[in-house]
Amino acid sequence: MSPNRPIRGGKPVASDNLYTVILGIAFCVVLATAALVAYKCYFQYGTIFKIP
Amino acid sequence: MSTLTKILIVLLTISSIFLCGIVVTYVANADNYRDQYNKQRADRDGLQENVASLTEQLNNKIAEKDDLGGRLSREIASLNTQISTLKRDLKAANEEKKILVQRVSNMASVVETSSQTAGEQGQLLKDTLAELNKLQAEQIKLSAELDDTSAMLLEKFAIIQTLEIEKKRLLEEKTELQSRLDRLFLPTGKLPTAPVIVTPEKDIARPTTVTARDIGLKGLVTAVDLKNKMASISIGTADGVKEGMKFHVIRGDKFICDILIIDTDAEEAVGALELVQEQPRAGDVVSTEL
Fold first, then answer.
1. Is the CB of B20 less than 8 angstroms away from the CB of A2?
2. Which CATH architecture has domain B218-287?
3. Does A2 reside within a domain?
4. Which one in B76, B85, B149, B230 has a CA-CA gap of 20 to 30 Å to B219?
């Protein structure tokens, strides 16, 4: 629970955990993309970093 | 957490998702160059094999071409030899053809001459046949004249025979008269002289006038054959009877029948009875005129 929690009856404010979740989702998306790229590179060219 | 950090977190997340979407889209749609490489390499290998096969076939074809070229060269040489031989034969055949054409022209002239000769021979044959026909007609005419002459000769022979009988009778009368004269003149001591011939033996023949007269033959029926309707008469070729003559048989003033003479002898003739009115008898008078 964040200490900067908005005061009841004022403007609604998201908690900090929500941004952590958003960052986690972004990290997962980037990681899945990197895994897909690595998979494609390996199965199409036989290597991940070298140029055949 | 400050507001700016939150904004950056949100922007970072959005941009990350956007870029990752772009990357995923690109990678998902990217071509598989490895497969294309393998495929092209397989195609290349196949093409290389084809090239090797075609090269081998080309070499085989070249070898066959060389072999065929050698054989064709030999055949060409053989054909050239045959051509030269055939040219010589053609030349000889042309020479023979000229000779044969000359012979044909000579034969044609011979045939033309033969045809002309055959035409002349045909014309000559026609003339000869015409002359033969003319001679045959003349022969028939001469045969008829010969028959007439033979009949006349037989008639003359009959006359000569009659004259010889007359001469014999006159000689007998002369001998009788000579014996009478001898008996008449012997008592008086005289002999009769030979009589002088006053008629010249020969004289120049003189033409005389020829006058036509009817035959006027007359005779008698000597025999009658009623079964065959034939009759014989007492006169023959010596009297001038000829075959084909027609005699009338009369008895008194009565007409009996006609006799058509079909066969003649010197002093007899035989004929067929025609127009029989009464039965003829031996002794009936026959005459050429009624």
1. no
2. Beta Barrel (2.40)
3. no
4. B149
